[in-house]
Amino acid sequence: MTIHARGIYLIILVAVLANSVLWLDSFERYLNGRYHIYLSEYLPDAAFTPSRVLRELMAPDDYLVLRPSVTPIVRTTMVVPPVAIAAIEQPLAASSPLPASGVANAPAAESGVPQAVALKEEGRPAAEVEGQAGKAETALLDPDPKVLFAGDSMMQGVAPMVISRLRKDYPKGVFVDVSKPSTGLVARRYFDWPTRIREESIKHGIHVIVMFLGPNDPWDIYEGNKRYTFPSDRWEAKYRSRVDEVLDFAQLSGIRVIWIGLPVMREERIKQGAKIENRIFQDEVQKYKFIYLPTEDLLGSLNDPYTKYIEDPKKGKLAVRLDDGVHFTMLGLRMISSRVDELLRKRENL
């Protein structure tokens, strides 16, 4: 090899190594999303610092602030019953915002921070904070509804539909859609949902959080030097604690939560995970007296074989799932979004 060729080779090598370091975090995200391989198992966390800093500097705002939703008043535990397919296929009729049941609008905490969070930051005793959060159950923090949509690519299809249905009825309300593909509660080094939800809720003074995620989570959980193997009792306990992080914050802040359950999945591992996750979602959401919103009755039970279709008495087979075995057709998305839309409008049920 000549000196000239060796120089070119070194330049190329340095360029490749530099790019590998600068984009290491993105490369791991790709491996995680496609193959569930974690480079962080083999490399020190410091190796990811340059790429993480670069991503944060280059990333645009990945949330979209739109308009409105609904503001609940009274919290009750419930599991939403099935609704007829025929009723779901048609857009819901517009409905007018309901009065606040004669309850005077309570002032919002300064800077849009929910009252309980503001009190906690002031250093008030826990009992006093929780008591103040309880008052939020029967009084509005803001006359205009503010709803946060969080979840993976499934939510990316649902949230825009719900938003388009409600924005005409609530012109002064706010929707914050922070759904992000290939995310969940397991790989939080890549994306930390509890932290993101807390930040966005405080920033926008959120009243309701709607959650929809899960297919990216049936994998081992890594936390420091600990590994929680999926499936196992230890994994379930750790996953349950991450669900509780979201619910703890919501309860303390006087925010309502609607957690959407998963329908049948094609891949066996994801299907097995969905069964465990749905059980955890429902148990924890009801324990906190929030709302668990099932989808198995709409799009297929996890106890049945996977199918892309549902049977309609009048129209026969209707495709509600895509070929990937996870996501939904436009009809499937309309069915879920109609159920969320209807529930948000029933403020007395939240």
Describe this structure as you would to a colleague.
This protein has 350 residues and is of the alpha/beta class. The chain contains twelve helices and eleven strands. Helix 5 packs antiparallel against helix 6 (126-135) and helix 7 crosses helix 12 (330-345). The strands form three sheets. Strands 1-4-3-5-8-9-2 form a seven-stranded mixed beta sheet, with helices on both faces. Strands 6-7 form a two-stranded antiparallel sheet. The longest helix has 21 residues, at 233-253. Helix content is 43%, strand content 12%. The termini are far apart.
Poorly predicted spans: 32-36, 59-78, 80-142
Provide mean pLDDT, rounded.
Answer: 74
Q: Describe the biggest sheet? A: 7 strands, mixed
Q: What's the total number of strands?
A: 11
- Class from helix and strand fractions: alpha/beta
Strand order of the largest sheet: 1-4-3-5-8-9-2
Q: What is the strand content?
A: 5-15%
Topology as a string of helices (H) and strands (E) = HHHEEHHHEHEHEEEHEHEHEEH
State the separation between the terminal residues, measured CA to CA: 73 Å
Q: What fraction, in percent, of the residue positions are helical?
A: 40-55%
Quick rundown:
The protein is an alpha/beta fold. The protein is built from twelve helices and eleven strands. The chain has helices at residues 3-22, 24-35, 49-58, 85-89, 115-121, 126-135, 153-166, 193-204, 233-253, 268-287, 296-299, 330-345, and strands spanning 64-66, 78-79, 146-151, 174-177, 208-212, 221-223, 226-228, 256-260, 291-293, 309-312, 316-319.
